[in-house]
Amino acid sequence: MIKWSIGSSGTPADSYYEVRSDCTDDVPKSKFKIKAGKTLSVRKWQAAFSTDGCLDIASVLSRIQKGGVHPTVRGEVWEFLLGCFDPRSTFDEREEIRQIRRLQYARWKEDCREMDSHVGSGKVITAPLITEDGRPIKDPLVLLEATSSQNTSDSASTSSKNGNVDDSATRITDKHIIDWKLTLHQIGILWPIVSFTFILHFTPLPISYENFKPMIGLDVLRTDRTMVFYENKENLSKLWDILAVYAWIDKDVGYCQGMSDLCSPMIVLLKDEADAFWCFEKLMRRLRGNFKCTDQSVGVANQLQYLASIIQVLDPKLHDHLETLGGGDYLFAFRMFMVLFRREVSFGDSLYLWEMMWALEYDPDIFFAACEDASAHKSKISRSKLRGVRHFGKRDKENAKNGAEDTEGPVPISVFMVASVLKEKREKLLLEARGLDDLIRILNDVNGNLDAKKACAGALKLHKKYLRKWKALMKPEEALVIDGWVLRLQETVAQLRPPAGIG
Question: What pTM value is reported for the model?
Answer without folding.
Answer: 0.77
